[in-house]
């Protein structure tokens, strides 16, 4: 592995951390700003594919004002791609819920998210 590849992996790991921090803190425009202008988002996989930063911001607007905490469990980087397993804990109607999706992201040359696919289903959500 070359020095440049190590820097790229570090940049991608930082981008994943920045994404999870933004999901925790919001708002949706901050999360969407991490995406390339023409990025795609499929969350969950098999659902609607959202295209473009405006559609992505609209998707994340469901998190605006929601108490949400994220924790990175593991990340793997290969080239301009990352797969990562993380935990999200949210409170809905006074009850806490956790879900541990696996997201797969591709990054453009600037380190912006070019595509994101989230692997999870509603049956994966547990009440704490």
Automatic annotation (TrEMBL):
Pfam families to which the protein is assigned, alphabetical: SnoaL_2
SnoaL-like domain ranges (all copies): 16-115
Keyword field: Isomerase
Keyword Membrane applies: no
GO molecular function terms noted in the UniProt entry: isomerase activity
Keyword Isomerase annotated: yes
Membrane spanning stretches: none
Gene3D superfamilies for the chain: 3.10.450.50
The protein's name in its UniProt record: Steroid delta-isomerase
Native organism: Rhodococcus oxybenzonivorans
């Amino acid at each position: 592995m070359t020095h440049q590849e190590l820097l790229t992996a570090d940049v991608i790991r930082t981008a994943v951390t920045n994404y999870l921090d933004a999901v925790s803190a919001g708002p949706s425009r901050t999360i969407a700003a991490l995406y390339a202008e023409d990025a795609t988002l499929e969350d969950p996989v098999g659902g609607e594919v959202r295209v473009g930063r405006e559609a992505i911001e609209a998707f994340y607007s469901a998190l605006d004002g929601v108490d949400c905490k994220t924790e990175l469990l593991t990340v793997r980087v290969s080239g301009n791609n990352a797969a990562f397993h993380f935990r999200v804990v949210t409170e809905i109607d006074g009850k806490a819920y956790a879900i541990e999706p696996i997201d797969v992201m591709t990054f453009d040359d600037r380190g912006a998210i070019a595509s994101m696919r989230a692997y999870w289903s509603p049956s994966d959500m547990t009440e704490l």
